Amino acid sequence: MSKMDLIIELKETIEKLQKNGETQIELSKLITYLQLASENPPQDLPPDHLEKLKAQLQILVEAHKSNHASDLEMFRSVMQSGQNAIKTSFLMNGGASVAILAFIGKLTESNKPNIPIFAETLTLFVIGVFLISVTAGLTYLSQWFYAEDSSRKQLAGSMFNFSAVVVGLGSYGMFIWGMKAAYDAFLSLT
């Protein structure tokens, strides 16, 4: 008899007593009943049933491992994509700043009155570099807070993460705005 069979039998016996009008069970009778049941200890699970349970447990463990590996790979992919976005914005805005600076340097040799036209363009690209630098810092802070178990720190990590995305998009916006300003500045030279 298994433990479950014992529980079921005890429950059925108590239900029969209740149907027969019994509202109380004398403790001495219950103890006697349990003593008889304990003298005939429940048998272990049959080997085939035990092997079936082990196989099911192994399937669940492997599924959990697979899900964990998939989640970890997705996390790595997201982190790599974020790092690539930061590097791209930094290179775009930084490269544009250097190019505009070189062009302004060339203007100092021949056409000094046109230098102020490109000041706004240079400023926009430099702000873009600054914003993407702030984004990198916010990304670090978000990961630092995510590493903690506290729900408050997890929330702070989410807020830093959201801020990093918004500021990073702002950096891309500065690049677009800077391109438009550079286009207008070049048109004004003609």
Write the layout of secondary structure elements.
Blueprint: H1 3-19, H2 27-39, H3 47-110, H4 119-146, H5 151-189
Helix pairs in contact: 3-4, 3-5, 4-5
Low-confidence stretches: none
Main β-sheet: number of strands, strand sense, barrel status? none
Q: Whole-Å distance between the termini?
A: 99 Å
Q: How many helix segments? A: 5
Instruction: Summarize the amount of helix as a percent range.
Output: over 70%
**Tally of individual domains:** 2
- Rounded mean pLDDT is 88
Oligomer: single chain
Which percent range describes the beta-strand content?
under 5%
Organism: Pseudomonas fluorescens
Protein name: Transmembrane protein
Keywords: Membrane, Transmembrane, Transmembrane helix
Transmembrane segments: 84-104, 124-147, 159-179
Notable features of this structure?
about 190 residues, mainly alpha, about 0% strand, 2 domains
Question: What can you see in these coordinates?
Answer:
By secondary structure, the protein is mainly alpha-helical. The protein has two domains: 3-39; 78-189, no CATH class. 85% of the residues lie in helices and 0% in strands. It is built from five helices and no strands. The protein has helices spanning 3-19, 27-39, 47-110, 119-146, 151-189. Helix 4 packs antiparallel against helix 5 (151-189). The N and C termini lie far apart (99 Å).
Summarize this structure briefly.
The protein is mainly α and 190 residues long. It contains five helices and no strands.
